[in-house]
Amino acid sequence: MRIGLIGTGRIGTFHAAVLARHPAVESLLVADAEPARAAELAGRIGGGGVSSGGAVSSGSVDEVFAGGVDAVVITAATSAHAELIGRAARAGLPAFCEKPIALDLPGTLAALREVEAAGSLLQLGFQRRFDAGYIAAREAVLSGRLGRVHTVRAITSDPAPPPAAYLPLSGGLYRDCLVHDFDILRWVTGREVREVYAAGSDAGPAMFRAADDVDTAAAVLTLDDGSLATATATRCNGAGYDVRMELAGELDQLAVGWDDRTPLASAEPAGPPAPTKPWPGFLDRFAPAYEAELAAFVEVVLGRRANPCDGREALHALRIAEACEVSRREGRVVRMEEFTASG
């Protein structure tokens, strides 16, 4: 199989190394808006012992679509996602794209219509669906081990804010960060969100106020069976990278993301201390999950498994994020019907 990868930033570099090691990937063509960066990455992966034997080369984005690749992996800047998804669809190429499809609902719906009209394949990168802890939690819920799940708590905390230049392009904390929590909430529980009430704080670094964004946010989500979920996020968690989910049922409770690297200390005298090596970031915490989702994409392209996360799944999560942003700005409960009238 020959795969083209577009976008050689942090996540693109990681994905390129994973694909180069995959035994089913015979060659990898990497491209970037900055050709020199793509060439440097291709040389480093191909000549640095990362590749398992397949050729690694670099070229332009146009060369990816004209170069006889079997599939495309899109890890470019968010602003380019929808256009590249459309190009892959028109070329009849299966595509894997990091979230989001686009930063707004109209752009997302337009890209999805193009994919569906072409009958092509699109897998979205929600890597938590491939994390061992979240998989175990989903199995526990579906098996009935927890009984009726009445409360879910989702937490995402970044150890430090991103660069100021990133914020105006991110879509905001709900769309950029909490969208992962919204997706995994649906996936683990098997429930849909009925309504949301959200609040945010920009009391931290001034760059968030300048970008009309918040550095900390919280949402209360009522699910379609009446159960409750909370989702909180912050860009300013100096203790480390903290991503968790807690599920409380009538029979049992379960936590995802609680291990000896979780950046959390107990205030109890006999409780566990802070970890000596807390998770520093998402690539460390979710490295196995990222590898598993790319392996799944290869299997999907080869026709060996069904698509585990198509574009419509990403649309559901984005709609929840949009509802939360409206709720934060307008200070009211927002019902999901407001965002599901079209598309």
Automatic annotation (TrEMBL):
Statement: the UniProt record of this protein carries the keyword Oxidoreductase: yes
Highest taxon of the lineage: Bacteria
GFO/IDH/MocA-like oxidoreductase domain residues: 135-250
Start and end residues of each Gfo/Idh/MocA-like oxidoreductase N-terminal domain: 1-126
InterPro entries the record matches: Gfo/Idh/MocA-like_OxRdtase_N (IPR000683), GFO_IDH_MocA-like_dom (IPR055170), NAD(P)-bd_dom_sf (IPR036291)
Keywords: Oxidoreductase
UniProt keyword Ubl conjugation, yes or no: no
Gene3D superfamilies per the UniProt record, alphabetical: Dihydrodipicolinate Reductase, domain 2, NAD(P)-binding Rossmann-like Domain
Family: Belongs to the Gfo/Idh/MocA family.
Name of this protein: Gfo/Idh/MocA family oxidoreductase
Protein source organism: Streptomyces monticola
